[in-house]
Amino acid sequence: MKFSIKAGKLQPNTAAAALFVCTDACPCGQNGADEVVAALCAQTATDEQRFVGSQVWHNGSLQALAVLRLQHTDYAAVQKAVAEAAAWAAKQPQLAVDVSALDAAAAATVVEVLTIALAQAVYRFDGLKKEAKPAALAEAVFYSGEHALQAALNVAEATVYGMDICKNLGNAPGNVCTPKYLADTARREAEAVGGQAKIMDADAIQKLGMGSFWSVAKASSEGAYLIELRYNGAADADAAPVVLVGKGITFDTGGISLKPGEAMDEMKYDMCGAASVIGTFCAAAKLKLPINLVAVVPTCENMPAGNASKPGDVVTSMKGLTIEVLNTDAEGRLILCDALTYAEQFKPRAVIDVATLTGACIIALGHTASGVLGNNQALVDSLLASSRAVNDKAWQLPLFDEYKEQLKSNFADLQNIGGRPAGTITAAVFLSYFTEAYPWAHLDIAGTAWKSGKDKGATGRPVPLLLNYLRSQAQQG
Ligand SMILES: [Zn+2]
Hints:
Elements: E1 2-6, E2 17-23, H1 35-42, E3 51-58, E4 61-70, H2 75-89, E5 94-98, H3 104-122, E6 139-143, H4 150-171, H5 179-192, E7 196-200, H6 202-207, H7 211-217, E8 225-232, E9 242-246, E10 248-252, H8 272-286, E11 292-302, E12 313-316, E13 322-325, H9 332-343, E14 350-355, H10 359-365, E15 370-374, H11 377-389, E16 394-396, E17 414-415, H12 423-432, E18 440-444, E19 450-451, E20 457-458, H13 463-476
Parallel strand pairs: 1-6, 2-4, 2-5, 5-6, 9-11, 9-14, 10-11, 13-17, 14-18, 15-16
Antiparallel strand pairs: 3-4, 7-8, 8-11, 12-13, 15-18, 19-20
Helix pairs in contact: 2-3, 3-4, 4-8, 5-8, 7-9, 8-13, 9-12, 11-13
Keywords: Aminopeptidase, Cytoplasm, Hydrolase, Manganese, Metal-binding, Protease
GO molecular function: manganese ion binding; metalloaminopeptidase activity
Active site: 259, 333
């Protein structure tokens, strides 16, 4: 979809579909708008009704005309308010949006939020269907009045770019999105935006001593890859990078600790951490953020087979710590721990891993908020601030030392599960043994990466949160 900005005010009768955005402080009637627009605006004064869309006979032609009257102009409020307008707009082939009545800050927020909402509304994953049914909307033009809004549009388009990569990878079925496909796509997408890719195969993974990662990967015939993407945008090419690490289990059967059959198809989404990291990397490079960035993705399937890991097996991680694998379905932490050790070599200023890690996170936070944990409160606070800034909700859980008791093993340095209590926390505690060398935070997105049921599909989260965080880091220099 194409987006652009034009200076000046929208003349209502010049567009096939026109959306006017105003506020209670400045309703359309007050800013010299066309009387048809003012009349529509007058219908939007109640709390329940902030949007009115209509077909009007206007100066000799039939026109789709709508008014969205905002009560509040913060990001979350605008996001909620534009939902109905975006659904209406998706049915129009071409949309003109007037934000000239808003103040500069509100206009920028509306451009950013509405662009993302429109892109989400027209998003389809129908390449595997005989007949594709694309949405009608192909182009939106924002009329900015006096405001400079290009920067807001650039951020929104980069966010959409990253979210679409994330969603396309997430929605692709397990027989399409294999570890090889994930690696090839990561390379292609990274190179398309000026990044570099290094793909390491099963031999390289074993040579690196990633015995924990390999213990998960070895039972699959699809192979395993360690993906490393690099983007150097900082003025100083040697400046310490931010490292994003994403869990890339392209299908999770649970292994020998086999999962129940119900909704098992959704285990194709067990690579959404990887997808969000790759998407965010590409969005940041597309925005040319002045920051150095590395993405590390361990990817494989978790399958049962004659050579699969068995409950009770002890494996040796790249760091040298031994791990008793009590449940082969707690495999995400087994591949992540070696990727997190690998990340040390970059001498990172911060490492953030993103993973669909625990069902317990859905019990704790539902499908609304991602879980955040970490060993550095300043880093966690930055992520929470970004989460609020773009309403990509996240909530911190504690990493108290007491939880370490649950990971003690009689036969190894650690065991890979800590029982039912505090399952999201003990998963993060497990990872914390491998992240002592740098500031680290962990995002558990098991509840937020995809939706089930009628709206089944990847959400593109937490790309908005991560991109906002990287932008804030770039501003700090
Ligand atoms: Zn699992």
